[in-house]
Design brief:
Oligomer: single chain
Radius of gyration: 14 Å
Strand order of the largest sheet: 2-1-5
Largest sheet: 3 strands, antiparallel
Structural class: alpha+beta
Shape: globular
Strand content: 15-25%
Order of helices and strands: EEHEEEHE
Number of helices: 2
């Protein structure tokens, strides 16, 4: 499990490492361009029901903490989906990764336009 620390919040947002790795790329790309946007997600099972939204701004401190020492191979399709949603008025809507059976193990390391894998 990974953690996202935002602003002066003392409690981190818990996000699995693979999802957090994808978010890190999309969020860093937007913030590097000095763009503000929102990040929204539904609360996972085991937490109070509902959803949350963060307003992400380049001037607010942000830290990503990963449990796994090795970064996962990133899905270019998922990065593109998250990036597309980041560029809408609704901001990033965190969705689960959709893996097609024929795509497993065949990920392309070429990033989509404007996204650089870290």
């Amino acid at each position: 499990m990974g953690y996202l620390f935002y602003g002066d919040a003392t409690e981190p947002i818990t996000i699995d490492d693979r999802t957090l790795a994808h978010l890190k790329v999309v969020i860093a790309t937007k913030l590097r361009r000095n763009e503000s946007f929102t990040l929204s997600w539904r609360h996972p099972e085991g937490e109070a029901s509902g959803r949350s939204t963060l307003w992400l701004h380049p001037s607010i401190p942000l830290r990503f903490v990963f449990d796994e020492p090795v970064a996962p191979t990133l899905s270019q399709k998922w990065l593109a989906e998250l990036s597309t949603s980041a560029n809408t008025s609704g901001g990033i809507l965190l969705t689960e990764e959709h893996i097609e059976p024929s795509e497993e193990g065949q990920e392309d390391d070429t990033p989509p336009d404007g996204i650089r894998a870290a």
